[in-house]
Design brief:
The complex is a heterodimer. Chain A is mainly β. Chain A is built from 2 helices and 12 strands, in the order αββββββαββββββ. Chain B contains 11 helices and 21 strands. Chain B is elongated, with a radius of gyration of 29 Å. The chains are: A mainly beta, B alpha/beta. Chains A and B meet through strand 2, strand 9, strand 10, strand 11 and strand 12 of A and loops of B.
């Protein structure tokens, strides 16, 4: 009996280890191949309220777009190059005296997005300009288009229930601001695995707090920006390929933009931004 | 027969003298208000040494003194012994005394400024003490049968309400859905709380639709590491605090103390949103909330001068001629070679020079008009029409004795013969006078009768139901740039506008009609 018990225990422990190993993600976690094509839909809804002279004004912007990506090169232990562009775009604005809808069925310029093995985007460069001035506006360097193909994961194995924290300070050049300093603390959690249409997905949830500050100059007037923000969301990744399948994020920003000079303003504003990115074809 | 002929001759002579007097006035006006005169005034007011005449500045004060000297030179009388009318401008900064303490059971919670609460910019300077009450969104909207104050008495209480409105992101909500309706605005909630007797108001970020629960309120420079004090808006001093109560923004620390946690508050909010039925209640928590603002006085003044009328019945009535003499200053941190001064030659050294021309014209006529004429050079137009608003608040001549106002702003550019008359559509009688006077000149303007324009100093007079005409030659690409300088001004045009304004003023000042 004891002998059988020992065997059963060993088998049970092995099963557990297999289970855990199966659930764990090991770096590098991206396995795409040259020629792979991914099509996404991306929606963003921004509700803003700003105050000037004690008067509050609100507005809403809804952007919808389709994007297409093709893996240009993906050799083992080398960076991954992916070509992508916006293929369809519409935007509606309401409030603040503006009510309009814009739609463009043209294709935007092509960009090369380069990633490392861990899913971190290391560069985004323009490859091909668009066919028209109008289409050129559909550029993926627009900071409001926060497209992600992967999620940068830690360089160690992670299992369901694991959490990790990332603290980063980025400096963004965003004219007319000389530099906007964004300090963010992001807390991630590997929630677990699920299956969707036969594809195994891993779900990562995260919450983020950030602080933004910056200054600049415009027409001899000094500009200042100061604010805070918070984000909550989740990302579903294709466990085999590491590609993003679905993400939904809510971000809230409270910013103050101040101008000092021949005219002086102080414009506090809040923004609630909901984004949804979905893989629609691979 | 001889008697009749003599009467006719006397009548003819009187008529001729009257005509000659008027004819002499008009001809002498063309010789008095010349393009050289206009260029002399304008070149001084718009010179680089005036550094753009920003409100407030030393250079603006120099311009004021210059205009006052001219008024005196042209025989205009001071009013109440002065050629200046002070404009009560202030900047409101966050004061020293801002505190918020909660007393729950036997425990005192001291809330920290910025971290736990932030006053709004329209808060009153006052200490308040009372029990807390929660009043949903703080909205009374009878047309939707929704009233957060319906079943609760908040007299003397410190009231907590949600920010925004029910169904904030729901497009089918009666409260405008995605757009913030008037009910969702903080100023409305303050007024509604006051109407229901609240001592003070706390706005709480609603957790159902928002994840950032830190208090925002107003971004006071004193609570910032980056923002300088001079971005605080300059405004007219509030007469008294009684139109406000202390209003602050609070966040997660208040939620924790008063409602235990975010989830229980979210439940309350969710229920209100789904049922559109209020859920207001008193809280067994006491609080002391104090907010304070400090005034920084800003120096600026209108320049005023009077031509006293002589008619025993009409002389206490006045026609006002005005122009703003301030502009927007200069660019800071500009390289030494770059042009950095906003000279404001057209905006509005042109109008101010024309104003001086009209004043000079009145000094050259043989006898004073029947009605009085008040000349006003306004300051602080560029930052919010504060000079003219301050005049309306504290008029030097009663408003019900003010028969008309003529405003000169940007009259020296664009086509030589084109001139816009804003408010002409709403004030046809005044417009008719301008057209009539225009016909008396050899080179006539093509006058464009236009409707209301709120963008200059006639606007507060229009709001006070005083008929007005706004003389304006139109916008141009140099507007509010460093390129608006004297060499681009059509001095001849500006002189003709000044002459036309003189003729119009003279007519109204000798008329006995009301417009």
């Amino acid at each position: 009996m004891k002998k059988y018990l020992k065997t059963i225990l060993i088998i049970a422990i092995n099963l557990i280890i297999v289970q855990l190993t199966h659930a764990q993600i090991s770096p590098p976690n991206i396995h795409v191949q040259q020629g792979d094509i991914f099509k996404y839909s991306y929606e963003m809804q921004i509700n803003s309220t700003q105050s000037m002279g004690g008067n509050q004004m609100s507005s809403q912007v809804i952007q919808s777009m389709s994007l297409e990506f093709e893996v240009e090169s993906a050799k083992e232990n080398e960076s991954i190059d992916i070509l992508g562009n916006i293929t369809n775009f519409s935007m509606s604005i309401s409030g603040g005296g503006l009510d309009s809808t814009t739609a463009m069925a043209q294709e935007g310029p092509t960009y090369r997005l380069t990633y490392n093995d861990f899913g971190k985007e290391t560069s985004r460069t323009l490859v091909d300009s668009a066919n028209s001035e109008v289409a050129a506006q559909l550029n993926m360097e627009n900071p409001s288009i926060n497209i992600n193909l992967f999620l940068e994961l830690p360089d160690k194995k992670i299992a369901p229930g694991d959490t990790w924290t990332e603290e980063k300070t980025d400096t963004v050049i965003n004219a007319p601001f000389k530099a906007l300093i964004i300090h963010a603390i992001t807390k991630y959690k590997y929630e677990g695995n699920e299956k969707n249409n036969g594809t195994e997905l891993i779900r990562i949830t995260y919450s983020q707090e950030m602080e933004i500050s910056g200054s600049g100059e415009m027409n001899g007037m000094q500009l200042f920006a100061e604010g805070e923000g918070a984000s909550e969301g989740h990302v579903d990744l294709n466990k085999k390929m590491g590609i993003l399948v679905n993400s939904e994020v809510v971000t809230e920003m409270s910013m103050n933009v101040a101008i000092s000079g021949q005219q002086s303003f102080n414009i506090p504003m809040t923004q609630n931004i909901k984004t949804k990115q979905q893989l629609i074809e691979d | 027969m001889l008697y009749k002929i003599r009467r006719l001759i006397i009548l003819f002579l009187c008529f001729s003298i009257s005509n000659i007097t008027q004819g002499q006035s008009r001809k002498s006006i063309e010789k008095t208000i010349t393009s050289q005169f206009i260029s002399g005034q304008l070149n001084y007011l718009a010179s680089d040494s005036m550094l753009g005449r920003k409100t407030p500045s030393r250079e603006l004060n120099h311009a004021a003194e210059y205009i006052a000297e001219k008024f005196k030179l042209y025989g205009l009388e001071p009013i109440h012994g002065s050629y200046f009318q002070n404009i009560p401008l202030v900047r409101y900064k966050l004061g020293e005394e801002n505190s918020f303490v909660l007393q729950k059971d036997t425990v005192s919670y001291i809330m920290e400024l910025k971290q736990d609460f932030v006053p709004f910019e329209f808060t009153a300077t006052r200490k308040t003490k009372g029990e807390l009450a929660f009043a949903g969104y703080g909205i009374t909207a009878n047309e939707y049968q929704y009233d957060d104050y319906k079943d609760i008495d908040v007299t003397g209480k410190i009231v907590i309400v949600f920010d925004h409105e029910p169904g904030e992101l729901d497009t089918s909500s009666v409260f405008d859905g995605v757009q913030l309706s008037e009910y969702g605005k903080t100023k409305y909630k303050m007024k509604n709380a006051m109407d229901h007797g609240a001592a003070s108001l706390i706005i709480l970020t609603d957790p159902l639709n928002h994840i950032l629960l830190k208090p925002i309120g107003y971004p006071w420079p004193s609570l910032s590491k980056l923002i300088p004090n001079d971005i605080l808006p300059i405004q007219l001093k509030k007469e008294n605090d009684s139109l406000q109560i202390p209003v602050v923004h609070a966040g997660k620390s208040l939620i924790k103390i008063v409602f235990q946690n975010k989830d229980s508050l979210t439940k309350i909010q969710n229920q209100i949103d789904k049922t559109l039925k209020p859920n207001s209640f008193l809280l067994d928590i006491k609080a002391e909330l104090t907010t304070s603002l400090e005034e920084e006085k800003i120096n600026a003044q209108n320049v005023v001068g009077l031509v006293q009328g002589i008619d025993p019945k009409l002389s206490d009535e006045v026609v006002i001629v005005g122009a703003h003499y301030d502009h927007v200053g200069y660019k800071r941190n500009s390289s030494s070679n770059a042009d950095s001064v906003f000279n404001g030659a057209d905006d509005n050294a042109s109008g101010t020079s024309a104003l001086l021309g009209v004043a000079k014209g009145f000094s050259s006529v043989s006898e004073p008009p029947k009605r009085s004429v008040l000349f006003i050079a306004f300051a602080a137009e560029e930052i919010g029409l504060y000079g003219s608003k301050a005049y309306i608040n504290t008029p030097l001549v009663p408003l019900d004795k003010t028969v008309a106002m003529l405003n000169l702003d940007m009259i020296g550019r664009n086509h030589a013969d084109s001139l816009n008359l804003h408010e002409a559509v709403e004030n046809p009688k005044l417009s008719k006078i301008v057209h009539m006077e225009n016909k008396k000149y050899k080179t006539k303007f093509k006058l464009n009768d236009l409707g209301h324009s709120g963008g200059s100093d006639h606007a507060p007079f229009i709001s006070a139901a005083i008929p007005a005409i706004f003389f304006f030659s139109g916008l141009h690409p140099d507007y509010h740039t460093v390129r608006d300088n004297p060499k681009l001004i059509d001095f001849n045009k500006a002189a003709r506008v000044s002459q036309l304004c003189f003729g119009t003023t003279w007519y109204i000042a000798n008329d006995n009609t009301y417009y």
